[in-house]
Batch of 2 targets.
Target 1
Amino acid sequence: MSSRDEGVWIMVDPGTWSHGVVVIADGVVVHANHAESLDNLHLTLRHTQYGTVLVERVQAHGMAGNDVMLTCEHSADFRRLAIESGHDTHRIYRRHVKQALDVRGKSSDAIIRARLCEEFGASAFDNGKACPKRKNKSHGDDCAICGGSGMEREPGRFAGVKSHAIQALALWLAFDHGAREVVHERPKKGKR
Ligand SMILES: [Zn+2]
């Protein structure tokens, strides 16, 4: 098993109609989408080089509605496809993600994002800032603001990762912090 900054990692937060996905290769985000289509996600799982796939597992609270059931079906499909495609595949409950990240109560996008900033630095989700002088004719390597790079501030490593994709990213850190798949065993007779 590789560390989080080595190899390919594909994290999926399944939804009802679209899905959060983040692909990290050698520690760099190479793809992130908070509303990935089923087709695109299937392509990613089929055609990305072998890596580790982490899929969030749906947990039912009381009666599950049709939306939850659909999400379950997607989650199971993603797992099967990931296994068939040769990836090392793990399905992890949200509550275990929260435990591993030491998040209590609601695990909203904002809270998970704040937790990731604690781990990776406040500027992790910064989109960066272009140099205000970059369009000047004389702009070049002697620019006092950017030194010619065109950026006053470089984007953070998770720039552009948002909403559903943040929940997908949380799987990556949670796995690194020890969150694992739970194997459910058939209850013993008389204990149902
Ligand atoms: Zn500049």
Target 2
Amino acid sequence: MKRELIGVKIRQVAEDSPEVVDSKRKVKAQFASDVGSNRILGEHTIVQIDKLRDELKRKQSGDPGAVSSEDDIRERIQIQEGIFPDYRGMFARLARSDNPQHTAMMATLHQEFLDSSFAAKYSSEMQNYFSVTGDSVVGFSKEMPTQLVEVLFRAHIERYRQMEREFHERVALYKREFIDTVKEDIADGFVSMSEDLLERRVSDIDIEFNDTFQNYKGVYGQHAEHIIKVTPGMEGALERHIVFHELTHAISGTSFMHVTSEFSEKIRNTEEIHIAKAGLRFRTRRGKVFSFLNEAVTECLAALWSGIPADEMLYAVERQALSVLLEKGVARKSILDAYFENPEIDRSGKHPALRMPKTVALMREIRQNGGPGLLLNLERIFQE
Ligand SMILES: [Zn+2]
């Protein structure tokens, strides 16, 4: 029987509504769970193997609580260990900086993975299993033992946890500095939001450290679903700027919608929380629009607050599109007011224009100054 969507109910929900709070809790719990997220390469496997080996020891020492048979436990250990051979090639390749087949990702991983302490310990041993002939022929000279793969996984996990601890110490500082800087701009009217809301949104957001092995995107930071994820290995000033950029997203004007989808079979009704407005990005029936404008404004604010030099700023093309609006005479103040506007929640079906008047005023100003369709024409450039 075909499952058909028969109804969708959408309603606005407040930032502090039980629906949004619950959705945030779920996202954070999912991320925190080692087993669910597998966020460090090899961690899930190593955790399982340690548990099973422990169980085997208890069984062998006659613990009456250990129910499975020894053979059964050994078989489960073998299944987990089965992933090790898949990683032999990757580790061997990583060890060689002269590997002509290094992609951008491999080059990054090589740099990160084989930092001084790690390289000194394992690099020469890893190199034994990988050879480069001339400047293009690469091959495996002999197979890396799976015990070495396990050792490398464990070393990586331990090293990542150490880097993560240091990262969290820096993040606490970045958050404090960010709040203090933005407060100055609230005080002189440049940013229209309450100090209270600023503090709440910044403290509410979790900032986590990515394992590049698990989540390589070639980008530095990402703000999605109540968690900011940051890539390791950046210079201090850039890392601080990236965190500021993501925090700027987090404090921009936001609204949430609760979407219930009902299916014909009644097997399952799905409930989801979506972000309807994030700064100047909006969710419409045709998807998310004006991301380019949102990124441009976010990056300009973040650079202003982090103090990063102009030539190190990101989102160059997006910022050019923003310049077009400013050159046409759209006021900076109108853009910022719309960016920070939190639409009012209204159950009586008030027209959106009344719920976010500053955003509507900005759209009108862009139309009047740049002619009809300017924003959509710019949008089209970024969609190609
Ligand atoms: Zn961004």
